[in-house]
Every structure is written in structure tokens, then in C-alpha cells.
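notes to self, project folder thing:

trying the whole complex as one job this time. last attempt i did each chain seperately and stitching them together was a nightmare. two parts in total, labels are on each line so i dont mix them up again. if this works i'll redo the older ones the same way
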Amino acid sequence: MSDLLIVIPAYNESENIRWVVKRIIDEFPQYDYVVVNDGSRDNTAEICRSEGFNLLDLPVNLGLAGAFQAGLKYADRKGYRYAIQHDGDGQHRPEYIPDMVKKMEEGYDIVIGSRFIESRKPASMRMLGSNLIQLAIRITTGADIKDPTSGMRLFNRKLIEEFARNLNYGPEPDTVSYLMKQGAKVAEVQVTMDERIAGVSYLTPINASKYMLRMLFSILLIQNFRKRGK
Amino acid sequence: MTITLRIVVALASILTAHMILKKIQQSKMVIEDSLFWIFFCGVLIVFALFPIVPKILSEIAGTMTTANFVYMAIIFLLIVKLFHVSVKMSELETKIRNLTQELALYEKENEPKDEK
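result (full assembly):
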């Protein structure tokens, strides 16, 4: 058994899930993985079963936070030391995992795979949102996270337990901001991400704006009132 | 708006905001669900602190007095919330029904085969 678990939340990813997982199995057999099928309405689960993938099949749709938490509960029970969030749509490249683990061993709790440490953000609406979240995190925590919306995040054992066992620990920038404010050490490592190959993104402009507003409101206001247990 | 009404509205919304934030602190409420209430309290506090805002809105809406507009705004927001809660409740019922059925089917598939 590896000490790192790749958690792959998948919702209606029948077009991508096969090659995303195959790439991990073929090129990175040193890591364990688990696919969390979040009650998909397409045949994501059937594909995983017929291919013999390690699958956690949620019978109803919980949303990303619930699906990711299911993966981390699995990691918690099996005693993994590291868990990494890996999108089911093929945007994340597993070859950056060793760099991220190396960074974590320098004493960090969360390591974010960041697109914008060395390269500048392109000018687009989505990046405007990213900049706003970055600013909100800087205002609340005083620290700079260059790619707060990156979904590629590596967590250590302590954070796996915390995410697995608590409410309001969605894998989103507001949780990262809250944890930083409460003393968690967060670092970023430069990565490259691919465009989604097939299927449609959930982030339509309307959804993206709603998401941004929710994040800003949560980071600037609500997270300041939370307390972290022990 | 009389000064009494303004004070009551402000106090009520501060109290509500306090209760909601406390629930989040105790991990008894999901942040998404709290956003509506924080927004609701924010609107009422703006009404209480700057009565010119509901006054202008009241003239646009054509209500007799500003106080009437404030009541109308509160009722309207609460109706919208009630609608969303109903939708959410239906979703939850569906999920529980599916879960229960899945669990029963799962147990059926995994029960010992030695019975006749």
C-alpha cells in the first residue's frame, strides 16, 4: 500500500474517467487512488466497475464537498499519510505529485498545485474572479495564494482527519483561507494544467459568478467567526 | 419609519446574524445555508440605519408608508426563502428514499444464500 491516496471525485465523467484513471495506473503505479462517483446520472460507475477501478459509489448526488469528504473518510480509515484532490475531468497531471509531496515534507499542511507562481494570470473573467479571491484571502490572512481556485490540493494526515470528520470543510478556497487564518501552513508548487478534454464544465458564467460571490462573502465575512477545534 | 421601528428592526437583525454565526461556529449549519440569513440581516440593517433607502424604494413601489414597504420587503424575502426551503425539502426526501431503497437492495444482494 502506498502512503498517498489520489481522490478522484467524478460526476458525469463517463467520457474522461477511463483515461484519467488509466494514466494513473499505468504511469504512477506507486500511488493508490480511489474514484468517488458522486451519484452520476451517466454510466461513470459502470465504466469503473467494468475496468476494475477502485471505486466508491455514492448512491445519491452529494456535490463536490460531500464526494471529496467521502474520499477523505476512506483515506482516514485506511490510514493514508497524504491525500490529493484530483479532478475527474483530466485537468490535473499526476506527474506533479512528487514535487508537491516534497514541498509538504518541508513542513506544510496543505500544498496547492498552482498555475500562477511563475507564469502570469491571463486576462479573463475567470481570472478576475481568481484575483478577487486572492485579494480576499490576503485581506483576511495576510498571506498570498496565487492560485486559490486550483482544485489540485495535497493534504497531510492531520488535515485528512480534519476534513473527514467536520462540517463546513468543502474543498474550496474559503476553507483554505479559514485554515490559514487558524494556523495551517499552506504552500504552492508550480504546475501546468490541461484543458478539459471532453464533456461540459459545470462552471457556466452564471454559476461561476454565483460561486465567486459565495466565496468572497464566505472568506471576508463568515469564516472570520469560525473557531477551529483542537 | 419611526425611531422605535428602526431600533426594533436593527436589534432583530443583529440578533439573527449573531445566532446564525453562532450556529456556524458550533458546526451546526452549512455556510451556504447561512448566506441568505446574513444577506437578509444586512438588508434590514441598511433599512434601519439609512431610512432614506426604504423611503425611496417605497415611493417607487407605491406603498402608503415606508413602514408598509419594510413589512412587504420582509414578507417577500421570507416567501422566496420558504419556496427554496420547500424545494430543498423535496430534494432531501428524494435522496432519503433513494438511500433507503439502495440500502435494502444492497442488504438483499449480500444476505446469506442458504435460505430457501
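what i see at first glance: The first helix of chain A runs from residue 17 to 27.
need to look closer tmrw
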